[in-house]
Structure formats: structure tokens, C-alpha cells
Amino acid sequence: MSANDWNQKIIDEFRANKGQVGGMFEGAPMILVHHVGAKSGTTRVTPLVHFPEEDGRTVIVASAGGAPSHPSWYHNITANPEFEVEIGDETLTVRSEEIPNGPEYDAVWERVVTERPGFADYKEKTTRVIPLLRLTRAA
What we know:
By secondary structure, the chain is α+β, with helices and mostly antiparallel strands. Helices cover 31% and strands 30% of the residues.
């Protein structure tokens, strides 16, 4: 199964179940990120685990499973930082801001690996700093 087919299966399950999916993501908070290709201009949808914050914002992680380079969606949303997301059965417009390395990054990363320990494995696999992006609902 290709990555696109795998993602589409998760997207379809997400939409059929108001944001809930099973398998390896069962119980994880999921989000669908609609991003516009920085070069192609094509809109794509990527399912990701997200980390809701108490103030209504949420964090996504550009881990790419520990690959040596950032995922393509990361480049797309840094080029076009305002985009739509689906959370549950709601579609929102958000603005993305990368959390810079430093104490805040470290605190958020600690929360990520505490809640989803698999992300620690991704960090072990790569020499790059895995970007953390905070999404805030656009006004």
C-alpha cells in the first residue's frame, strides 16, 4: 500500500467517525491538515497526531517518522502558514507558528514524548531537530 493510499484510509476513517481512528492511532488525538503545495499549488490533506493545549491551540510534530529530512507538509505550511484543519467534525482556519529551540521547545517536546513515547524513537533516528508547530485559530 502506498503512503497516499495509507493516508487516504486514515482520512476516510477520520471523517466517518468524527475524528476517531483505530489501528496504530487508536485513542490518539488526530487532526487533518489541509496544506497547499509550496511549488505545485495543489491542496493536500495529511492526517497527523496533534497535542491540544489548554488555551485552545494545538501542536503538530514534523517528525516524518525520524526520516533525515522534514516532511513535505512542513515545507508547505511554512510557505503558507494559514490553512484549514479538521478536528473531530469541525473545520477551522488556523495559523501555524514554529516553536523555536529553547526552553519552550524542550517543555513541549517533553509533553509530546510523555503522551506519545513513539516520538522519542523518531528523534533517535535522525540528526535533525524535529520541528514543533503551534496552530492557533485564525480570527
